[in-house]
Amino acid sequence: MKNIIYFLFLTMAISSCQSNKNEFTKQKDFTFLTDSLNIDQQLENHKLAGFSLVVFENYDVVYSNQFGRKSINSDEKIDENTAFSTASMAKPITALLCFILEEKGLIDLDKPVDNYLKRWNLPKSQFTENSNPTWKNFLNHTAGTSQHGFADFYEGDTIPTLKESLLGNIPRYEKEIEFLFAPGTNWQYSGGGYCIIQMALEDTLSKSIAELAEEHIFLPLGLKNTTMVQPNEKGFLTNVALVHDKDGKVIKTGLPITPQVAASGLWSTPQGLAIIAVEIQNALRNRNNKVISNYVAKQLTKTTTLKNSVGGWSYGWQKSFGTNNIDWFAGGGSNTGVGGWIYATMKDGNGFVYLANGEKPNRFPVNAFVRNKLYKLFDWGEKINPSEAQEISEEMRKRLKGNYNDFLYGQGMPVSIIERESRIYVESPFFKHFSGRKDSEMIYLKNGLFKIIDYPNFLKFNMKDGKPNSVIITRDNLNIKIELNDSEK
To answer: What structural domains does the chain harbor?
Structure first.
């Protein structure tokens, strides 16, 4: 009987703590962020027209604020309903749409995508003779197709069709999209691959991707300021931010038209994108999710490839981030004169979204400042359990130290392993840019693997002649081996 009473008391205490945590999140005043971030000054310093930010914590939006103007030629200020062109942030939303449609039995993502195409078919290639790329291959960029990204068009331009894009009858490309390797054997970012997805959806379901996204995602989630309708089409939004060049001037009409909708044609607000991110987070814990199922959320965000994929990729979402020892799913977009990011944790319901209407030299410094400041202001992170770690011996530290090729992200950036106060740290420009710290501590676990605090994957070093000569990068059931070059050998 005493054990039963103790169990009930413990259950009530845990429930009370969880309830108090939720109440704390709802009651906490986050207006301090306005002064801490001082975004107005950032806009002035970098000649950035406007910036819109949403922060969510414990599955609730806790801060939303907008700064600057929709256009440098107007005094009309950006508000929470002002939509931006989101560029490649359209890709994870397209992937989400595909998984929702599959769950409804309308498509099969494990089938060859060519079976669904009518207006055009995949080009013949030696790389696909024995391997037909599936929907999933295109969604996680392992299909092997070319065409990285696309130029924008504006009113008055000749707008290409989707088929013309795939045929290469557009700026930047002079030939039809092609295969660069056998599907599933490597990773190559491909906006063209998402054009193929768009064509397959529209050919199969006889609706535009804008109609499908509205029906299955935006309308069910109540997103009135999110659309895949383009500026030259009926039903386009009226409250929008115009794109600006590096001198702070509006580019042409300010409204980029993107026929490659699945790849980069989404317009939305940080509020709308935050609602989608939190819906995915709720679905991952299978609680309070209304539109996205637990199955879809898990499939959508699981890491599916590590090879040459900037640290990891799922379907549409980038899984390269392990900031503060937690797992994030993220999506970024960058077009001429506009861009932003979604960052969301795989558990606990935390993250942020920002969009800015300025060119890269103007918005990148502001983006980095806000992102890294938010990491410092919020206690989003997990400590590695001391019982799981072991001491790195002096001999091991001596062996590991050195300057290496980029074994973390495969982007050609220099990586160094250094020692400081008998601890081991890894330096990478990626850490500096995305977390504000030039290095991140590497912990030696008792299972023989290493874990870098700001990196999502585990590492196992292979030694030769007393120095690491290769490393195995591991995550979930995936692993890759990377040969190391140490300049200090």
So the answer is: 41-377 (3.40.710.10), 386-483 (2.40.128)
